[in-house]
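Assemble and predict.
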Amino acid sequence: MASLKINSARLNETLQSTCTQWGALSTSTGMCRLTLSQEDKNVRDWLVNQCKEIGCEIKVDQMGNIFAIRPGTATDKLPIGLGSHLDTQPAGGRYDGILGVQAALEVLRTLHENDVKTHRPIALIDWTNEEGARFPGAMMSSGVWSTKSSAPLEACWGLRDTEGVTMQDALEEIGYLGTTPCDYRENGLECHFELHIEQGPLLEREGKSVGVVTAVQGMKWFAVRVTGVEGHSGTTPMDNRSDALVTASRLISAVRDAASRTGLGVATVGVIKSDTSSQATIPAGVEFIIDVRCSTDDMVDALATEIFKSFDAVVAEEENATSYDVTRTWGLPESKFHENCINAVRRAALGEVAESQIMDMKSRAGHDSAWTSRVVPTSMIFVPSKDGVSHNPNEYTSPEHCALGAQVLLQAVLRYDDCAKTGAF
Amino acid sequence: MASLKINSARLNETLQSTCTQWGALSTSTGMCRLTLSQEDKNVRDWLVNQCKEIGCEIKVDQMGNIFAIRPGTATDKLPIGLGSHLDTQPAGGRYDGILGVQAALEVLRTLHENDVKTHRPIALIDWTNEEGARFPGAMMSSGVWSTKSSAPLEACWGLRDTEGVTMQDALEEIGYLGTTPCDYRENGLECHFELHIEQGPLLEREGKSVGVVTAVQGMKWFAVRVTGVEGHSGTTPMDNRSDALVTASRLISAVRDAASRTGLGVATVGVIKSDTSSQATIPAGVEFIIDVRCSTDDMVDALATEIFKSFDAVVAEEENATSYDVTRTWGLPESKFHENCINAVRRAALGEVAESQIMDMKSRAGHDSAWTSRVVPTSMIFVPSKDGVSHNPNEYTSPEHCALGAQVLLQAVLRYDDCAKTGAF
């Protein structure tokens, strides 16, 4: 079993060709495969066919999550899950999420062509809307499945994209509004493994090739609305203005400064929207979203407190009253992964590369595994991202690292299955 | 002649009812009548019919400017123009522009029903796209007509709205792509008068009811694009970021601070747009437009210089390289009005109210008259704006002030016509 090898060429060819066909940007190697778009439907249809061809049973749940299950010898056991996502940012890359699903398919193909019989079933999972780029709220459908997210099924169904389409309609439109309950208690897993690119610079900087991920940092999003008074840009004296964009600008600067000053973690304003579309009007309403991430939940709260304290100082200094409101829109608590899964990954990695090539690390990005870890044993495998770049067309992980990650995933699954059979982890 | 009176009730009823029918916002007394929209077509059609009914000849030029000309006794003279605009901001009021056109119609109606024969023809003018809210570039079509604007006919025709519709197609679509040359040398005026609301607080603050406008302050618009490096909001360390939105925020603060500090004039950022629509992505590209206005061109240049000097300081202080580019998109030089027109307005006002009710002033907003003043004698009449509010649904000018403005307009025209006949201004 330890000698079983994935097919590196097939993995990389499949990953590149499916990206080229469904969602490639025309001017770069980047991707735009928004969740539940036509491109997403096409790659889902392809995935389902590939899995059926190698004998998997397909379940689609109420959030469009696809479970492709290869049977094990045991008929009374839950499957070992290998999950990630096929959707991307509007201008993302070919590896974030996609590698994890394609590697899971390569694991299933390898098991199939070598006629390997695992004790437990093995489930490939494509989680819907991990990116939160079309319907707001990242890692949405693994969150619903875990029942631990603050956004339950009906709330997610009702979310609208910028065109006004609801998530439920979008699922129905592409034929992925399934009937399997999106709930781990009714459609469960034994555990969850996820191969992912690091999306940061640490592995590359340290000269390592495999990251054994032990946790995911905590994160919270806050929606801020600044309110001022509209007015004519020519006739309103400077000292008579309540300019919502000027105040918002000072607040956005304060977010950056609070994160840099305290060193508690990272804080980002990624989206800004002004009510005004006229060059000659003083903006009266501006909205933006703050993304705060730290290695512990306490640090997230401390950084958020620091940010809002500096907001109060900014608003107090403005000559005329502008005001701001904050809504906590979304959060993912710090996630600690399970020892059994971490050990399976570490031992699998040691079987493939020297110990000096491996490091333990925390994930600084959110992943579906953060939600699965709330309800089933979970861990992740990281492989290096060139220059730490992600959410960008220049995202890149070498074919060798993609293959190494898939090989570690295969071996981690086999080791976990073996240990779980006897209970001797 | 000095006893000739406009019909105050008719003016105000017409103004309100045409607003209610074509472009009224449903939740306020505000207006959304974007240029060349269906609402604009409807009010234009109505205006053309009203003018025809009282014996005017209609010309529509290549930019859709409507000239409704009431003949004079002289057949070899150019008309005295009374112009303004019927388009509004996306959430504007019922008086900005609209009052000037409705007052001009009321002047024509008054002349008609009193069977007054003027020496020169009188032309009502509805200038297209004064607001620049749908197709960028305010006072666009009077600018083309004057031939002094940096945006000539073909460039304006090619502009696109946010839906991608060109201005030429929009003109054709509503039936207002006329054949009269949009050029004062081929479709000329003797002079141009414009009644407008002040859009600022000065008349109200001073307790005056008529402003004799002697000039329009200079203005320039600059488009700024800030470039950073896209990245993942969770995995990119704070000290490794080139965040275009953080830099843009510091620049927008600097615009406000430079204007407040120098006291040279006003500077506003009314529009901001980020390339990024993802909460989890560090923005790599942000665009905004700066609107700078001062009472002289030298002061405009001095304030712009001060702003860009502070930009360089902001960018130099950023830890990682972000950069910015500036494009001068539009400008309107300081406009000095013509003594003959100013005198006609002042004398007309003195005939209606006490001298203590009248003040000379500069316009701080741009108007079509700024362009006409480049090529024909021009002046304006201001009436008070409640609380100085404009470009806002709360814009308000009392019926009494609307009527007073229209009455001054009528008498200014009659006085000018009289003086022009003999050359004794």
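Chain A has two domains: 8-216+334-422, 218-332.
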